[in-house]
Amino acid sequence: MLGSIMFQIPPYPHASGSSSNQSEARAKPILSVRDGDGDIVLPARRLWSVVLIALGIVANLAHTSFAGALADDIGDAPGFLLAAIALFAGCALPFLLLHRDRNPMLVLTVNAIAAVLLPLGSLTALCSLSALVARDTDRRRLAVGTALASAALAASYVKDLLRPLGSSLWKMLFTEHDTGVGDVPARLLSPMRTIVIIAVVWGLGSVAASVLAGLYLRTRAIAQTADAKVHAERSRADTLASDLQIQRFADAVAAEAHDTLAHSLSLIAVNASAMQAQASHLASSLESSDTASDADHAEKARALAERASQIRRQAAGALDEAHSIIDMLRHPQEARIMLAPSDETALTREALYDVIDAARSAGMTLDTWIDVRDLSSLNPDIAKIAFRAVQEGLTNARRHAPEQRVSLEISASPANGVIILFSNATGFGTTAGPTQTVVDNADGDHGNHGGNGLPCLRERVERAGGTCEYGYDARNDFHLDVKLPFVSLR
């Protein structure tokens, strides 16, 4: 009967995912499956280990005490020695249950052999059988384990039933009340055949209960693992849905930027090109005149044409940058590559001279002091943040103090780090200038638009381990101070 039960146990389905996938679940599973051997790793609980060890020791001591007392009564020296050995073994073997989660088959085999050879109980072997059924899926090993546990239980029961009435646990259970005490001999309530049948039925039930307990542990572990996988898949689905929603929003922003910003920049470039053509035509017309005033007007027309050409080139560059940002919104997986440091955003002398010359060409009065060293060994990420700080400082001065003189100081060295200092007058009086609070919460852009440049710059600088401070002094001059660590290339 037990053999048929064991061979009807369904094998544990192998997990198709890796252990890293299971760790994504919100509830930690209590088992995993080793690839290839099908063993279920079910950790042994400390509280249950203490309870099972205590019960195993008590059961072993009960059988050993009866066997030792009988050997002492009849003067059986070998039997008494065997009982003494069983006393120590019965106290030590239950501690093998601490390893029932690592090698349940070995624990079961040792306890079963000990129960067959020594006067010990079978409770430890039955507990080992439950551990084996809960953790092993090989049907042959399960059948062998069931046979070992059954043999241990049968040997323990047979040895107990063969002892005299006063030295048998089973017989004591069926002894008449008030017999076996004093001079009254012990008498059985039921015939020996009935006791044997009850013992056999109890033994079969004990083995079946051990198997069912192991199956329960296995099923519960499988259910918890399945539940953990469900939670993991739900979390993954929620993440994908959130990513999809974010991507849809990014696509909408990209479409809006393409329809508005890119269109406006295109119109600026077209109008600048038309202005350049008209100014060039006007200059050519005035050059043909002999009067001094016409020659002066022709020179101004040529300067206007050159300025229109610069506006056209800058609008074209801004249009390219707008398209790059739109592409990042539409393809976020490529944004890391697009945002990586490049030659155009590196803190080099050439890049600094280009951005400074562009600011001066736009009409900015800019005083500079540059002392940079060992830039080739500076980390590209730090260099990009520093370069963006220079750009943001120039942009902020151009937007909010277009006619004022700007001072820029840049220094970089491994000893002192990267230091960028901006200062410019605002054109306000000492009593009419904007307050400190306005500057600390925005980049000086008044109204409801903008105001994200300097706060975003401060956030980037602080993430890199630097400091970014900006505001007005007592004379209402605006200052921007950026300090970054000089992180060398690894």
TrEMBL record:
The chain crosses the membrane at residues 47-71, 77-98, 105-131, 143-162, 195-217. GO terms for molecular function: protein histidine kinase activity. Its EC number is 2.7.13.3. Keywords: Kinase, Membrane, Transferase, Transmembrane, Transmembrane helix, Two-component regulatory system. It catalyses: ATP + protein L-histidine = ADP + protein N-phospho-L-histidine. SUPFAM superfamilies: ATPase domain of HSP90 chaperone/DNA topoisomerase II/histidine kinase. This is histidine kinase. It is an enzyme of class 2 (transferase). One of its GO terms (biological process) is phosphorelay signal transduction system.
